[in-house]
Amino acid sequence: MTRLFHISDPHFGCEDRAALDWVRERIAVERPDAVLLTGDLTMRARTREFQAACDWILTLDAPVTVEVGNHDLPYFNLLERFFMPYRRIQRIERMVERELALPGVSIVPLRTTARAQWRFNWSRGWVGPRALARSLKCIDAIPDRKVVLVTAHHPLVEVRRGKAMTKGGERALAALAKAQVTAVLSGHVHDPFDLVHETPNGPVRMIGAGTLSKRIRSTPCSFNELTIEGGGVRVKVRTFGEQVPTPDMLIDDVPPNAEPPKPGEPVAPVGATA
What are the structural domains, with CATH classification, of the chain? Predict the structure, then answer.
């Protein structure tokens, strides 16, 4: 059995320090086999935010792989954005887009951020041909593909509002389905989800983690615990227990379009969160 903690969107600069301390403690006590961090380390890609993010990541007592998010590209220094976008995370450079080979599962990164796009909103996802080819090459090199998880920042298809689609996402999901990828793990939307998306090459599971920042949406700060056993992947949402009563923190599923539940709608529990 292999256990992974999937965390996302700490947004240092707007981080929830109590939630971050809780996650670090859970990692130290429970010793997952790896931590997968799917982007948006910072709020505005400022130096002090990256320093705080790197300080925290380097204290985690587990192997870590990190994706960068749209908030991690410099906002105000265009020269740096285009030519040295990751200069401020050199301390964790070895963890960025890091492949991991663990018992029964392989982790492969897929970059979905872009320094510039041919559309106004550069925060949206984009899977370029080279990024997809690089990930597929890594997958092809895996000798025994029991469970393959791809880590990205943006969901490859929109799961919240029916717009702001990830450019190239449908094509990427079809290619990943053909490569027999088990699931694509992402963040960005600040709410956890677990959906199956149909492609011309078969279904691909999409798993999203919530946020560890103060920028929460329909659910409190959380991370996903993934258990891989016998070729299957079980997902449990672990929510920060000091924020709301326990029954309200547990998330079983989301609607097909992943809209947050309307006020008054029941949320079915799935298990303990501690």
Answer: 2-249 (3.60.21.10)
